[in-house]
Amino acid sequence: MPSVFVQGRPVDSYPRLAPEARRGQVRRITEVGEEVLHKPCRDVTEFGPDLAALIDDMFLTMYVAEGAGLAANQVGVDLRLFVYDCPDDDGVRHVGHIVNPVLEAPTAGRRLNDEGEGCLSVPGAVMAVARPDRAVVRGQDRDGSPVVVEGTGYFARCLAHETDHTNGYIYLDRLSKREKKDALRQMADRRDEVFARRAANIAALSA
């Protein structure tokens, strides 16, 4: 089996950072409570250089924040779009972007994985969230061409998590009140540490 899939297709090799990141600029990541994270995003209707530049910025921002995925509203842009660079449970790497993503409803009887999940917009918190062990997302690429990406295990979790973002949900919305309070407490305790690491990564990039 190939060790890397880009836009859902196997490739022989791929650089450690997606090429888009070299063209991008780091953007500020929005945090839980900011309005743009808590309402459905708009469909992307214009495919062109502005969209391509946003994708470049999102890749670089994701890497600086040490994330596996990042949605456009996490950089304050109200559009249905996310980028990802994420392994599945077999160690296969998946890299790409999806515009106007739609998550297929899971087939009956899919196994649920109840594993730890974090979010760059809830810095420092990790909570167990039940997600199906397989996900299929349909959408478009930066040029408007159709794309279908399928994932299992941790990558399925990433696809579901990022599609949730485009629909105005964060993973805290899937938790009980008590669990949500616990997550926000974790964030308060660890936020400074997370931001220091991001700052160090930005400094290392510009060195």
Explain what the structure shows.
The chain is an alpha+beta fold and 207 residues long. It has a single domain, classed as Peptide Deformylase. The chain has four helices and nine strands, in the order ββααβββββββαα. The strands form two sheets. Strands 1, 2, 3, 4, 5, 8 and 9 form a seven-stranded mixed β-sheet that branches. Strands 6-7 form a two-stranded antiparallel sheet. A hairpin with a 5-residue loop joins strand 4 and strand 5. The model has no long low-confidence stretch (mean pLDDT 94).
Name the descriptors:
seven-stranded mixed sheet; 9 strands; alpha+beta; Peptide Deformylase; about 210 residues; about 30% helix; about 25% strand; two-stranded antiparallel ribbon
The shape is globular
Counting DSSP H or I runs of 4 or more residues, the number of helices is 4
- The rounded Rg comes to 16 Å
Order of helices and strands: EEHHEEEEEEEHH
Kindly name the structural category: alpha+beta
What's the structural blueprint in terms of helices and strands?
Blueprint: E1 4-6, E2 9-11, H1 20-23, H2 49-64, E3 69-71, E4 81-87, E5 93-103, E6 112-118, E7 126-132, E8 134-140, E9 146-152, H3 153-166, H4 177-206
Parallel strand pairs: 1-5
Antiparallel strand pairs: 1-2, 3-4, 4-5, 5-8, 6-7, 8-9
Quick overview of this protein structure:
With 207 residues, the chain is α+β, with helices and mostly antiparallel strands. The protein is 31% helix and 27% strand.
